[in-house]
Amino acid sequence: MFRVIEDGSMNTAKWWVVGDIAGDEFRWGPLEAMRSTVGRVTWDEARRADADWLSEVATTENVGGVVFWTPRPGLLDQRIVEAWNVAAPLARCIQVVGPWCDGEMRTGFPVDGMERVRWTEWRQLNADWLAPRNWRPRTWNSVEQWLSESIRRARTRKLSLATAPRPSASEPSAWIVIEAQDRETFEALSALVGEVGLEACWVRGESVWHESDSGFSFERVVGWIRDEAGCGPAGVTDAAIAALTSERLRLVNYPRVEDLNGPPDDPSVESLQRMVNETVLGKPFSIDRVLDWLKRCADSRVTE
């Protein structure tokens, strides 16, 4: 039977998780932050006509939302989502889809009325999405959502400009290597790099460019960004950068995932584990998340 565990805080939103999260594809989802206020529901309980768990949802004052874990198509029924929306019309409804659902948007029958998240993105997104500060009523129209996001982004960028660590005259510059095929992509990412007080180096193919004469050196690289839309899954700087920094950011075409053409057998799971140990963002990516990653790089800058 489902259960709700509360931590005694009246301000903490209650979340419900439907499905089994023990599979390999979901093992990277950090649920520890929400386990104290989460209700666990099995698929059998979710499909029952009486839907006791939804009655509990309807009588809960502070409902954060529900997360449906669907490792394969066909688990989630449209009626379950509609019943949830009736019980908690202002709460968030998120579906985390596994590798078997890759072609569902083209050949299957995807469920409407929720936010659809790939399992490889959940690790980066869930902490931000479950944060109370980012909660927005589902009744907001597109303009209200855009204004809310713009205000939050402006505050973040203003804070980053005010608090960005700037190198002193005696401190060597720390570098972010940007591997991109075109200058427009490099300049867009380079502007974000400058906001946190770092220098940007452009890598394309076997050529390296940098925009200043401040002494670029691979030994001072604190992070590496690869736009895989232009560079492909492998690049000439792989070995060099991997040996110098643990901060790696990949920008991939949504919903592309490397080395995965079906269910997660052992080789593909190991490959994805290596990939998810890095930071992976689907495009279009959030500027806030790129800035957060760059700030971590700035905090680990190399000094002589």
* Beginning-to-end CA distance, first to last residue: 59 Å
Please, how many domains?
Answer: 2
Strand-pairing-aware structural class: alpha/beta
> Beta-strand percentage?
15-25%
With strands numbered from the N-terminus, the spatial order across the biggest sheet is 1-3-2-4-5-6
Please name the fourth-level CATH homologous superfamily of the largest domain: Response regulator
How many whole angstroms does the radius of gyration measure? 22 Å
**N-to-C series of helices and strands:** EEEHHEHEHEHHEHEEEHHEHEH
- Given as residue ranges, the uncertain stretches (5+ residues, pLDDT < 50) are 1-11, 32-36, 155-170, 232-237, 254-273
Using the coordinates shown, work out and report the CATH topology of the largest domain.
Answer: Rossmann fold
Q: Taking all residues together, what is the mean pLDDT? A: 66
Helix proportion:
25-40%
